[in-house]
Amino acid sequence: MSYILNIETATKNCSVALAKEGKTIFYKEIAEEGYSHAERLHVFIEQIIKDAGITLNDLSAIAVSQGPGSYTGLRIGVSAAKGLCYALDIPLIAVDTLQALASQVTISDGLIVPMIDARRMEVYSAIFTPDFEKKREVLAEIITENSFDDLEETLYFVGDSTEKCKLVLTKGNCVFLEDIKYPSAQEMSALSYAKFKINDTVDVAYFEPYYLKDFLVTAPKKQ
Questions:
Q1: pLDDT value of position 223
Q2: CA 74 to CA 124: how far, in whole Å?
Q3: Could you report the average pLDDT of every consecutive run of 10 residues in the chain (223 residues)?
Q4: Which ranges constitute the DSSP H helices of the chain?
Q5: 80 in helix, strand or coil?
Q6: What is the pLDDT of residue 211?
Q7: Residues β-bridged to residue 14
Q8: Which stretches make up the Gcp-like domain (predicted)?
Q9: Spatial distance between the Cα atoms of 4 and 197, rounded to a whole number of angstroms
Q10: Closest-CA residue to 22 (of 187, 174, 212, 209)
């Protein structure tokens, strides 16, 4: 029996899910304007393990959202995941944050475009098929009225950037699913289990979140 604890802290949503054989059986999450991950995360983990009637020693692996997303949020989640993996001597699994966000969408055709807010009109985004296969890799990009002009399919946008992006992405093939704002550990369950089954894990000592830090560096203004 494989129990995997999934941790998602890449955005404002502090989310933890316990999965058995790839199915979420318990979860706790809260999305707040002020980041409360440091205070909430370990409490959520303890409550879920208690509610499930198991112990941490019953876990087969820990899965963590790898980013992109909030620098502070990712650091908190990865630090907690690494600490548990070290203490329990179990593997660490890294899950693509944007894929987990896209996995909340159910469509039969078209493409899914998950986006995580960066600043101003900047977002982290990727493109997925209805089967959640990645069609375009993660980019840090500035959204303009010409973004995604090369795609004729219906585009379903999700994430915490939809409100600002829908003001400029006004083409007829753009659909904004505004109810889906944040990635959740619930959607990580199937993704992490699929990786667990093929031993797709990361090095606990050397793993670092996917920050896309180069996108956030700006050149100094000329004097």
A1: 45
A2: 14
A3: 95 96 97 84 97 98 96 95 98 97 97 93 95 93 94 97 94 96 97 98 95 50 45
A4: 37-52, 71-88, 97-102, 162-165, 185-197
A5: helix
A6: 82
A7: 30
A8: 36-199
A9: 12
A10: 187
Instruction: Say what the pLDDT of residue 99 is.
Output: 97
Question: In the prediction, which pLDDT does 197 show?
Answer: 97
Q: Chain centroid to CA 29: how far?
A: 13
- Paired strand residues for 127: 136
**Single-letter amino acid code for the residue at 149:** D
d(C-alpha 140, C-alpha 143), whole Å: 10
Q: What domains lie within the chain, and their CATH numbers?
A: 3-96+183-198 (3.30.420.40), 105-176 (3.30.420)
Per the CB < 8 A criterion, the answer to whether 32 and 47 are in contact is: no
CA distance 102 to 139: 15
Among the listed residues 208, 215, 192, the one whose alpha carbon sits nearest the alpha carbon of residue 22: 192
